[in-house]
Amino acid sequence: MNLIIFLLAATSIAVFATIGYIQGARWAFISLLILFGTLLITDLFEDQIVMAMNGIYTGIMLLLNGGLGAIASGDFDAVSETISTIEKPFEGESAKYAILLVIAMAVGFTLILAAVMKSRKGVFGLIWGFVYGYLLAAAVIPLITVVPAGTLPFPILYPADLPSGDVQAATNQLWTRLSEPQTISAITILIGLFLVVFLLLTVRRGVKRGGGKKEKANGSS
Amino acid sequence: MGPVEVVFLVVIVLFGAIGIVRGYQRELGVTTMLLIVLFVLEFLTNTSFGERIDDLLLGAGMTPSNLKTMWALVAVGAILLVTFVSYQGLGLVYPGSGKNNFVSLLVGLINGYLFAGSIWYYLSEANYPFANVEPPFSAFYDFFVQILPPAIFPWQFFILLAVTMLIIRVLR
Question: Which residue from B98, B139, B147 is facing A191, i.e. has the nearest CB?
Answer without folding.
Answer: B147
